[in-house]
Amino acid sequence: MYSFDPTDEQKLIVQTARDFAAKHLRPLAHESDEESKLPGGFLAASWELGLATGAIPEAFGGVGMARSAVTGALVIEELAFGDLPLAMAMLVPALVAYPLVDHGSDLQKEKILPAFTAATFPRWTAAMVEPTMSYDPADLATKATLIGGAYVIRGRKCFVPLGTDAETFLVYAAEGGPGLDHVQAFVVPRGTPGLTVSAREKNMGIRAVDTVEIDLEDVRLPLDARLGEKKGIDFARVMSYSRVAIAAMGVGLARGAFDYARDYARERKAFGEPIASRQAIAFMLAEMAVEIDAARLLVWEAAWQLDKGNAATKETYLARMYADAMALKVADNAVQVLGGHGYIRDNPVEAWLRHARGLPTFDGMATA
Amino acid sequence: MIDFEHVPAVAQLASMMRAMATHQMRPIAREMDENEHADPTGYFDFIWQSTKSFARAGSRSPGAAQPGSASEPAIGQVRQCVIIEQMSWGDAGIYLSTPNPGLGGAAVSAVATPEQRERFLKRFGEGKPKWGAMAITEPGCGSDSAAITTTAVLDGDSWVINGSKIFVTGGKRAVADSEGFVVVWATVDRSAGRAGIKSFVVEHHTPGMTVLKVEKKHGIRCSDTAAIVFENCRIPKDNLLGSAEVVERGEGFKGVMATFDATRPAVAASAIGIGRAALEYVQERFEAAGMSPRYGISPQKLTARERDLMMMEANLKASWLLTLRACWMGDQKLPNNLEASMCKAKAGLAVTHVTQKAVEMMGPEGYSRKLLLEKWMRDAKINDIFEGTQQINMLIIARRILGYTKDQLK
After folding, report:
1. Domains identified in chain B and CATH numbers
2. Of A6, A10, A137, the CB nearest to B298
3. Domain that holds residue A132
4. A3 to chain B: which residues are within 8 Å by CB?
């Protein structure tokens, strides 16, 4: 039956995420962006909260929350409302833990999952995006080839979040292709011959999170490095979860930008009246409000499809496409509402515009 | 729990309405567009016979947007909108011509006494097809309904109404072609502004009421849009809906305005039905030509056509979800004034663009009257205008999100 009301449990989790975002994300957003550095102790504090990987089953030492893309979307929106880069950073463990829970072999789960239920932030990350204009998750340039009882990986990845300190990389590579069903994921420990980790990338936004490029030059891996081993992974599903998460981030970011612009427009006076009392500004704000809700509902519906067990390729794709464009437009409007002040880095809206522009590029950098 | 699944009864209703739309509406859609003021009598009789029982049972008949009231079992706004969306997929002009209490009935339901409800609404469960209509707009005022100049003066046991009304949907069928009625907004005290505005039921064929003309329109041509003149039109005293007292923020005006919270999602649903008809048609044609959109590939690799189709689909779906949210809130008795305006503003604009794009994408075929696409584009546009233009709804949204009054944001 149609309902737009989250469960009581979801409301509780959302409140937790909202409180954490208000205390640990929003106040640290500006400085971490300016310094291109995560705040000291941030990852540890977020890890203690346990939101990133709450759905690891109890059998593997997890909290055993129900695995739900809807819950994930609700939480991610709140965190991204606080700050998108910090939200991305604290959710990096999920990039490995959830594909592992969903697609890993029993042996792999036993071996790897303990790192994700331990007391310290796991030094794992995932590598999906490739540094080329023609990047396409359904047609990756990074290839995995089975040669003489070993997988040989060749290719380049970029935007690998928290890559500087990562000890292990989950690398997505195509075995033939094109097509989503040809993509598999491989566990590549740092120090594996042929793997080179670049210096930190310099990007337009999400500066607080270090991202790196990795170069895989005929990296040889044992057969059990392939996630799911013989069975492999359902990459289409991995991508669907990723699209929902990134779309939810867009909704959270946009809500932050809208709130800020609305409050500013009520305060700022021109010609003796708040600028919000002019339709030119008021209608921009109204459009922002409508579009944020529109995108959020598309995200919820797509996530709900995933929770029902459907592939949801179309739904998640449309939700992401819509939310990416919406977030950019809303962030841009927010800068516009603030006028010259919006362009100055003392106000957060210009940073939100820089972050929002990254959303269409962030494949595989978040998961629900 | 967040859930996007209809209960089986609603899903069944949707497929029933789809079948009805396919067999009773689509086949005559073009004919009813080309013969602007003709009556689809076969459809009238069919829909009247099949929905009369709803009305007799005291519930709402399909296609009539009316808010529920405690004394009446309501079919609910979600169901209402599911029905309207399907009917408008069939044909929006014919849907709007459906014999039912219409907006006039909505106003009666919102503020009438039980006696009035019986007197005015019982007729929709018996006899021949009938229509209810609502007359608000005047030649000199549209969205600014507080500027109404039509007057009602109490004279003994009668109200005497004088003034001109335009854009009365179903007006001719309500008062000249059937034993229906029109609800007329008129002021009892011009100096009181908004507080002086009351609504009155004027019965069919009342002396002093003349249907001056039926408008020729861009689209929804099957639907009659009447201009009605009232010259010393005398109606019984108890045809006033609500209280006669002139009070600032009186219940009467508020009650009638509240009907918009139910009718705006209904307009959004109608818009979406038209948009879906156009999108489905274009999708099917491209699919038949081996050009289905490739969901899941890099957005960089999409063709312009794929991107257009996908954005049309996403916009329609977003509009529909916003509409269902407003309806669901209405059904939950939650205040939904903001959400009702949001879905109306979004759907009206989205469907205007979707149908225009659909015509464009089919090239010369799209512009030809051989297909229904150009008609759907014309039909769609009204949804961006009536029941509050897009701009009026944006104004309502803006006031809500800013917490501003009418004076703070004009």
Report:
1. 8-100+112-125 (1.10.540.10), 132-241 (2.40.110.10), 251-402 (1.20.140.10)
2. A137
3. 124-225
4. 1-3, 328
